Amino acid sequence: MTASRRLILLRHAKSDWPDVPDRDRPLAKRGRRDAPKIGRWLRDHAYVPEVVICSDARRTRQTWDRMARELGSSPSVTFEPRAYAASAMTLLYLVMELPAGCQTALLVGHNPGVEELATSLALPPDGDDAPIRFPTAAVAVLDFRGDWDDLGPGQAHLTDFTTPADI
Asked: Which of 124, 122, 93 minimizes the C-alpha distance to 109?
């Protein structure tokens, strides 16, 4: 029987725009408020990852730190430089490197890569090929059968999606 896997894609929470390099931008007040909401939503819906790949940018780390407190678990976390401002293809390669024993993984990254990856992976419902829109702190839950290294376009099902405004 082919294994069922779950990939959770999260765009970082709302960031501030101080005069610092892009990679060093912190979360804005709204982002600091929204990230824990998403952590609670994941926990309450039993979407708790075993493994996390998080961009090494300051705003993604801060998003992860604030949401992790709400999960009620301690997944393995990798702060991955390759995830910073990555294309959908680079993000897919990171997912394909996930350990075979992992059933549920979370990727915390940036747009447009996260949005493009979700749209690419999700089987279009009813022939709808509109992109999945990812405002800050939006989260998509994608399920598929198979191994991580076999995942590709159109092979996942969008199981759930939310934004802080929806919670």
From this structure: 93
d(CA 135, CA 160) in angstroms, rounded, equals 15
- Contact between 33 and 25 (Cβ < 8 Å): no
Q: Which domains does the chain have, with CATH numbers?
A: 4-122+132-166 (3.40.50.1240)
Helix, strand, or coil (residue 104): strand
CA 11, CA 108: separation in Å to the nearest integer?
Answer: 6
Laid out side by side, the sheet with 51-55 consists of 76-80, 51-55, 104-109, 4-11, 139-145, 157-162
Helices 29-44 & 58-71 angle (0-180, nearest 10): 40
- pLDDT tens digits for range 58-77: 999 999 999 999 998 999 99
Contact between 59 and 15 (Cβ < 8 Å): yes
**Backbone region of residue 146 per phi and psi (left: phi > 0; alpha: psi in -120 to 50; beta: other values):** left
pLDDT in tens, 117-165: 999 999 665 556 677 889 999 999 999 999 999 999 999 999 999 999 9
Specify whether the CB–CB gap between 8 and 140 falls below 8 A: yes
pTM exceeds cut of 0.85 = yes
Instruction: For the chain, give the longest Cα–Cα distance.
Output: 53
Number of CB atoms found within 10 A of residue 110's CB: 21
